[in-house]
Amino acid sequence: MSWEPDRLDDQQQLADGDPSGMLPAVAASAAQVRTSYRATRETDLSSLVRDGRPRAIVVAGMGGSGIAGDILNAVCGYGAPLPIVTVRSYRLPGWVGGTDLVIAVSCSGKTEETLAVATEAVRRGCRLLVLGSPGSPLHAIAQQAGAPFVPVASGGQPRAAVWGLSVPPIVVAAELGLVQADGDVFENVAKRLEDVAHRCRPTSESFINPGKSLALEMAETVPMIWGSSSLAAVAAYRWACQLNENGKYPAIWGEIPEANHNQVVAFDGPLATRDIFADDAGRSLRLFVLNDVEEHPQVTRRREASIRLADDRGVRVTQVAAEGTHPLERLATLIELGDYASTYLALGYGIDPTPVSAITELKARISQ
Description:
- It is a single chain.
- By secondary structure, this protein is α/β, with parallel strands linked by helices.
- The protein is built from 14 helices and 9 strands.
- It has 2 domains: about 5-20 and about 205-350, Rossmann fold (3-Layer(aba) Sandwich); about 25-180, Glucose-6-phosphate isomerase like protein, domain 1 (Rossmann fold), CATH 3.40.50.
- α12 links the parallel β8 (about 285-290) and β9.
- The chain starts with 10 loop residues before the first helix and ends with a helix.
C-alpha cells in the first residue's frame, strides 16, 4: 500500500477504489439530517417529556453509534442543567435508575453491548428511547417495553449514518428544554453539510478541495488532532476514529488544555520533524488543531502557544476552523471535513474505505 496522491484527482480510480460508496454516503449527510429530523418528529415522544426533565441522560452505543452521545453532550454544552453520559460498554452505571433517560443507539440494532444496556434500562424502569434498524433485536426491546423507537435507514456502515443517529437525541433534548434546536436549525445544518459536500466533491481538484488537501497533509504522517473546546474535541475524536476505520490509519486525538499536559511532550520525541531535508521527514508527527469560537480565553492562549511550540520544533501544523453559529452547525462542519479527509486518505493509499475486516474478524473470534 503506497501513497499515490495522483489517485485523488483521477475520477476513474476514485470510483474503482470506492466500490461500496463511502464518498456518496458522506455526501448524503444533509439528506440524513432532514430524514432523521422528520422521522423523529413523527415519533410519539410524549413518554419521554411528560414528566419533565430526567435526572440524567445516558446514551448507550458503540463506535459510530456511540458518538451520538458525545454529539448530544457537545451541542447541549456547559449550560445543560443535567449530566449527559455516554456508555460504551455492557453495563449501566450503578446510579442510573427510574428518574433517568436512557437512549439506546445501534445502527444495526444488533450490537451486543447496546442490547445488554437497553435490557438493563428496562429492568431498572428508566425512560427509554431506542434508535436502530426496524425489525432488529433492539427494536423488539423497544416494542416489549412500550418505548419510543426511531427507525434509522442505513444499509451501510454505522459510521456513515452519524447524522441519522445523532439528530433524534438532539430533538428530544430540545423538547426537554436543554437546547434550542427547531426545524430551522436542522435545515441550516443540512445546508452547511451540503456546502462542505460541494467543496469536497470528487471532481474538485486537490488544490481547492479541503477534504483532499487534508488527506495530502495527513499522508505519511502520524496525525495528532486537538480540539480547542469540548465541541471541537468531539470532532477530533471523530476524525481519529474515521482515520482508523476509513483509512485503516493510526491517529491521536486530544483536547486543549489536557493535551498540553501530556501529548505536547511528543514534540520532543523521535517522531517530531527536525531535519526538513531528511528522507523520512514526512513520516513524522503532524498537528491538526480544530478551532471553535467557544474556546475558553485561556485555551486560546494555550492553543497559540502550542502552535508556536510545534513550529519551533519543526512539527507541521494545520488549523481548521468550525463554521456556523449554532453549536450543531459548527460541529457538523468539522465532522464532515474529517469524514471526507479520511475517505480520501484511504483512496490515496489504494484502500477501500468501507470494509472493517479486523472488526469483523474480532467479532467472529468472540462468537466462537
